[in-house]
Amino acid sequence: MDRFLIREMKLADYSAVINFWRQTPGLALSDADTEENIGVFLTRNPGLSFVAEFADQLLGTILCGHDGRRGFIYHLAVHRDHRRKGIGRHLAERCVSKLKDVGISKCHLFVLANNDQGMIFWNKIGFQRREDIQIYSHNISSE
Ligand SMILES: CC(C)(COP(=O)(O)OP(=O)(O)OC[C@H]1O[C@@H](n2cnc3c(N)ncnc32)[C@H](O)[C@@H]1OP(=O)(O)O)[C@@H](O)C(=O)NCCC(=O)NCCS
After folding, report:
1. In CATH, what number is assigned to the domain containing residue 17?
2. For the chain, how far is it from start to end, CA to CA, in angstroms?
3. Which is the closest atom of ligand 1 to the Cα of 89?
4. How many domains does the chain fold into?
5. Which helix (H) or strand (E) holds 74?
6. Is pTM, for the whole model, over 0.85?
7. Which residue, 27, 50, 79, 110, has most beta carbons within 10 Å?
8. Buried residues in 7-44 as b, exposed as e (16+ CB within 10 A)
9. Could you list the pLDDT tens digit for every one of the 143 residues in the chain?
10. Ligand 1 contact via 26 beta carbon (within 6 Å)
11. Of 114, 142, 113, nearest to 130 (Cα)?
């Protein structure tokens, strides 16, 4: 493989991206990942989410946004045949760089508790695991 290309994710990528995510263990997909919701996310956060490609083949994805205070990263995934080539690091670093450009000084992400490789990756590229925070969720749609 020559150098992969990283470009902004567009809603037109949705069907390829959702298929890719569905085939990637380690990601937590939910009703937040419908085409409509991803469209809203990309519109609210232009220029922050990316795909990695080589010769039109989807090799990696990352979703990134912010709420005006903090950045959030979701769904970093790299094709299993193309891991350990720096694609994940490049995607994450691109998001961090773009968040910095828009004035966001810190970002967070969620890792499934059993995703040891994901944790090793994030630690390796300089993200700090928090021991002082627990995640609480509330299902609003069931009210
Ligand atoms: C985690 C993931 C995105 C890493 O992507 P990647 O392109 O392989 O990562 P990189 O090549 O940029 O790796 C950067 C460094 O992280 C470390 N690393 C990455 N994957 C690792 C693994 N499986 N085991 C140990 N170290 C690993 C290495 O130190 C690596 O550098 P090196 O190859 O020079 O030693 C990829 O494994 C993946 O898609 N996993 C499934 C989905 C997932 O878990 N995503 C994270 C959700 S939070």
Report:
1. 3.40.630.30
2. 50
3. 12
4. 1
5. strand 71-78
6. yes
7. 50
8. eebeeebbeebbebbeebebbeeeeebeeeebeebbee
9. 678 999 999 999 999 999 999 999 999 999 999 999 999 999 999 999 999 999 999 999 999 999 999 999 999 999 999 999 999 999 999 999 999 999 999 999 999 999 999 999 999 999 999 999 999 999 998 77
10. yes
11. 113
30, 84, 120, best to mutate for ligand 1 pocket (most atoms within 8 Å of CB): 84
Kindly state the tokens that stand for 102.
């828009």
Ligand 1 centroid vs 126 CA: distance in angstroms?
12
Q: Which of 76, 60, 73, 65 is nearest to 16 (CA)?
A: 60
Distance in angstroms (rounded) separating the CA atoms of residues 90 and 96: 10
3-state SS class at 5? strand
Which domain does 47 fall in, by range?
5-142
Q: What is the C-alpha separation between 10 and 127, in angstroms, rounded?
A: 26
